[in-house]
């Protein structure tokens, strides 16, 4: 039986790091979400939000969807909209990488850029203004329970199965917080003593995919009680670890993945005989123009 593209969202590899952890009794595993069709962990909630909204009758093919995004969710929504027959309008800060913008446009999305000084907060405000003017339906990844549900039903059970229930620590970068909310809920139900660790940027750091929201913009799906602790990473740490992942492990990931591994390594320094899983959110090819992988010879 032939399958369509939605059948290939999820079921991503979980791979063991061999060199970066060094000599240790711990196992550090990367969940390679860049292997999703549109290249990131956001494929899961994008498909979940559109599919479930359509099933409820909230939207129908031909409708216009609006979303504020910093990149990966926009790309995933653009792919899913193209696949399911929707018009997609994406609102994003102008300082996001050109690869992200071009990927969205390739899927046929209309892109509205907002000033970089306003960051994602202004992009969210502009999206709300468009909706108020009758411009379309906002799925709202920040408040939509179908976002974490995608991880509760998909990402976390895959990790649980692949580790045979052996996972002891789960590390996830925090943006919309859908991944850590959905996975954290599943893991807590399966193993109450598992530790759920969130990753946020240090003050002043600009790490794509990792955010610390002002209180007024805190995602509605976020429940702080589901996160045991939050570790802060610097931009320099995240970028350096991203380069190490490529050069020492052969894993070409985005910068948030490096940040998540920085946190996972800190966790591993404090424990023994642990199974630490971190989310590698996307692929490195959508960050080439940022210069993060540049060397003196390039």
From TrEMBL:
<dbReference type="InterPro" id="IPR001216">
    <property type="entry name" value="P-phosphate_BS"/>
</dbReference>
<keyword id="KW-0028">Amino-acid biosynthesis</keyword>
<feature type="binding site">
    <location>
        <position position="256"/>
    </location>
    <ligand>
        <name>pyridoxal 5'-phosphate</name>
    </ligand>
</feature>
<comment type="pathway">
    <text>Amino-acid biosynthesis; L-cysteine biosynthesis; L-cysteine from L-serine: step 2/2.</text>
</comment>
<keyword id="KW-0198">Cysteine biosynthesis</keyword>
<dbReference type="Pfam" id="PF00291">
    <property type="entry name" value="PALP"/>
</dbReference>
<feature type="modified residue" description="N6-(pyridoxal phosphate)lysine">
    <location>
        <position position="42"/>
    </location>
</feature>
<dbReference type="GO" id="GO:0006535">
    <property type="term" value="P:cysteine biosynthetic process from serine"/>
</dbReference>
<dbReference type="InterPro" id="IPR036052">
    <property type="entry name" value="TrpB-like_PALP_sf"/>
</dbReference>
<feature type="binding site">
    <location>
        <begin position="175"/>
        <end position="179"/>
    </location>
    <ligand>
        <name>pyridoxal 5'-phosphate</name>
    </ligand>
</feature>
<dbReference type="InterPro" id="IPR005856">
    <property type="entry name" value="Cys_synth"/>
</dbReference>
<dbReference type="InterPro" id="IPR001926">
    <property type="entry name" value="TrpB-like_PALP"/>
</dbReference>
<keyword id="KW-0378">Hydrolase</keyword>
<feature type="domain" description="Tryptophan synthase beta chain-like PALP">
    <location>
        <begin position="6"/>
        <end position="282"/>
    </location>
</feature>
<dbReference type="GO" id="GO:0016787">
    <property type="term" value="F:hydrolase activity"/>
</dbReference>
<dbReference type="GO" id="GO:0004124">
    <property type="term" value="F:cysteine synthase activity"/>
</dbReference>
<dbReference type="InterPro" id="IPR005858">
    <property type="entry name" value="CysM"/>
</dbReference>
<keyword id="KW-0663">Pyridoxal phosphate</keyword>
<dbReference type="InterPro" id="IPR050214">
    <property type="entry name" value="Cys_Synth/Cystath_Beta-Synth"/>
</dbReference>
<comment type="similarity">
    <text>Belongs to the cysteine synthase/cystathionine beta-synthase family.</text>
</comment>
<feature type="binding site">
    <location>
        <position position="72"/>
    </location>
    <ligand>
        <name>pyridoxal 5'-phosphate</name>
    </ligand>
</feature>
<protein>
    <recommendedName>
        <fullName>Cysteine synthase</fullName>
        <ecNumber>2.5.1.47</ecNumber>
    </recommendedName>
</protein>
<keyword id="KW-0808">Transferase</keyword>
